[in-house]
Amino acid sequence: MARLKPVKILYTLLLLASVNVSASVDAEIDKFISEMVSRHGFEATTLTNLFNEARVSETILEAISRPAERLPWHKYRSIFMRPDRIQRGVDFWSEHLSTLERAEKIYGVPAGIIVAIIGVETHYGRITGNYRVMDALVTLGFHYPKRADFFRGQLEQYLLLTREQDIDPMSLKGSYAGAMGIPQFIPGSYRHYAADFDNDGKINIWTNPVDAIGSVARYFSLHGWIKGDAVAEPAEFSGDEWKNAVNEGLQPDMTLEQLAAMEIKPAGSVNTGSMVKLVELEQKEGPELWLGFHNFYVITRYNHSALYAMAVYQLSQEIAKRYNSDAS
């Protein structure tokens, strides 16, 4: 009997593995389509055609495997704390002053925070993403096992959204993770939190800054933003015991008294009854510590990262400082 050479054996095994993976993915897609038909009344043929048109992207899989939030703080911060981003934030604030004032009055979220979110997410609407949303969600929902359930859920929300808005699902573009428009809402966030802030009967976060501003403010309000409360405060510390208070969680989990016993205290005055989150930021010269309050945690609901929340907060402070200076 002829025997296969090792290289041919390896090739055959890889080919069989590829076939098995492809069959498994096809089965999962068929299951998803069946659920959309039974749960929401979609036409199976229509969904099958959409999946046939969607393209799996290796670029998307590479991008999600190396998010910017893995950078050390001093490198991550430099992406956003740039003079041009600060000045454009001031310009955006001036241009949309009445809308920002109305959003702050209705939802209690400071104009600076709203502007900073939009500045971090899309550079004030300049960079909203070039990936087809359908491609991104199919790629991540069926070829990224680590978070497949989440992205399949977002694909479900996306198909509902486009049906409700009478939009071609293949027409919208966004980030590699399927986030859309000026505020970069994922489909589920759009359906649950987006606002028709100009009262024209439709919600347009893609090209309408008014709806984008109202949507960001409403998102934070519905996630528990406390009007007038602090966001974050630098901490002073000595010794190494602070390392025992740092963890990967995001919710405030310690009292100021507990931190004081570890030789950690706020650099300024704060409400002594507040629960806080100790946040370590990696600077070139060593660790920098901050105290994150409830509103800091609320910012992390937009992007589950302490670095992200700190970038938004510090950018909001710089924009507000420049804006108020120019106005005086």
Summarize the structure.
With 328 residues, this protein is of the alpha+beta class.
Write a concise keyword list for the protein shown above:
disordered N terminus; 9% strand; 14 helices; five-stranded antiparallel beta sheet; two-stranded antiparallel sheet; 328 residues; 55% helix; alpha+beta
Task: Characterize the structure shown.
This protein is of the alpha+beta class and 328 residues long. 55% of the residues lie in helices and 9% in strands. The strands form two sheets. Strands 4-6-7-3-5 form a five-stranded antiparallel sheet. Strand 6 and strand 7 form a beta hairpin. Helix 5 (83-95) packs across helix 7 (111-122) and helix 7 packs across helix 11. The longest helix has 35 residues, at 6-40. The radius of gyration is 23 Å and the shape is globular.
Unreliable stretches, pLDDT < 50, 5 or more residues?
A: 1-5, 13-20
Most strands sheet: 5 strands, antiparallel
**Which radius of gyration do the C-alpha atoms yield?**
23 Å
Helix and strand run: HHHHHHHEHHEHHEEHEEEHH
Structural class: alpha+beta
What is the mean predicted local confidence, pLDDT?
92
How would the global form be characterised? globular
> In terms of quaternary structure, what is this?
single chain
Helix content: 40-55%
Beta content: 5-15%
Total helical elements: 14
- CA-CA gap between termini: 91 Å
Q: How are the strands of the biggest sheet laid out side by side? A: 4-6-7-3-5
Using DSSP, what is the number of strands? 7
